[in-house]
Specification:
Layout (H helix, E strand, L loop, with lengths): L2 E6 L3 H5 L1 H13 L2 E5 L9 H6 L1 H18 L3 E3 L2 H16 L1 H11 L12 E3 H9 L1 H7 L8 E5 L8 H4 L9 H7 L4 E2 L18 H17 L4 E4 L2 H18 L7 E3 H8 L4 H4 L9 H7 L1
Parallel strand pairs: 1-2, 1-3, 3-4, 5-6, 5-7, 7-8
Helix pairs in contact: 2-13, 4-5, 4-6, 5-6, 11-12
Length: 292
């Protein structure tokens, strides 16, 4: 029997990162999962929306949670921001009767009611918890041995840890373990847990570029072959951001950036074309040549 999850794509992935969505769908199908698209799903209502109206943001998040409840499925996210927002909203609405009542007063206008029957998981939790490292190792048909990887979790998948309960917020290991399961090797580097500055884009572009530059410099010093991310904003900041850093500081980095499902897909024998790697700004050919 296939395990089923309601797939929550969020906004950034379908709009700007087609290879991420494509690789998630292909890898999870190969691993025996059934991912169900939620008709009518909308934005998760992230922190900028909450800063304008907490009640509105909570009602929007609750609307998406209602869709998963109606499908009788737990919600699986592939975006750090969506994971944080929806997990926090789910917890608050389950615990606080007044917040739940306020949200349902809004939801009743569109025929919805939050009941608090389902959970929210990040896709790494699903792979790590529902499948496990041994089965991931067993799914590898093309070992990535010799590939040196810098992992980057991003901020919003780990904190607030009391709400998300994803991993140790200071010394996480899930992504590193999953990278190692492909045959590749996770390599430590300086300031690994420091923010990439992705959410500062459009607010303070200079600071965002400086933070990206710091991340890219430290990764380059570790002499890795690529960076593996789990966050669409981090991906944009380090993929597209490399071009911006190169122009601004005259430091042309050429470090390929992969989403974890892309790395796993390669290890499972999928081709670069099947995974949409040609859509990346920084060419992935150096790592493809190495694993060949």
């Amino acid at each position: 029997m296939k395990l089923s999850y309601a797939l929550f794509l969020g906004c950034v992935v379908p709009a700007r990162e087609p290879s991420y969505e494509l690789s998630v769908r292909k890898v999870f199908r190969e691993l025996g999962f059934n991912l169900v698209d939620l008709k009518g799903a909308t934005c998760c209502a992230p922190i900028p929306v909450e800063s304008l109206s907490f009640k509105t943001s909570l009602a929007i998040a609750a609307y998406n949670l209602c869709l998963a409840e109606e499908a009788d499925l737990d919600l699986m996210t592939i975006c750090n921001g969506c994971f944080q927002v929806l997990s926090r909203a789910n917890l608050l609405l389950k615990r606080d009767e007044k917040l739940r009542t306020d949200a349902n007063d809004v939801l009743v206008e569109v025929g919805k009611e939050f009941k608090g029957k389902r959970n929210v998981k990040d896709y790494l939790q699903v792979i790590y918890g529902d499948i496990g490292l041994e089965k991931i190792r067993g799914s590898v048909s093309k070992s990535l041995k010799g590939l040196k990887v810098a992992t980057f979790y991003g901020c919003h998948i780990l904190k607030p840890s009391s709400v998300l309960m994803f991993d140790d917020p200071e010394r996480p290991h899930i992504l590193d373990d999953l990278v190692d399961a492909t045959g590749a090797k996770s390599i430590p580097y300086l300031h690994k847990m420091r923010c990439c500055g992705g959410l500062l884009r459009g607010i303070s572009d200079d600071l965002a570029r400086k933070l990206a530059r710091d991340k890219l410099f430290n990764v380059s010093q570790a002499q890795v072959d690529c960076i593996v991310t789990v966050c669409p904003f981090c991906f944009l900041q380090l993929d597209l951001g490399q071009l911006e850093v190169g122009r601004r500081f005259n430091e042309p980095y050429k470090i390929p950036i992969l989403h974890y499902p892309e790395l796993l897909g390669l290890a499972m024998g999928m081709t670069p074309g099947e995974l949409g790697l040609h859509t990346h700004r920084v060419p992935t050919e150096p790592i493809l040549n190495k694993i060949e």
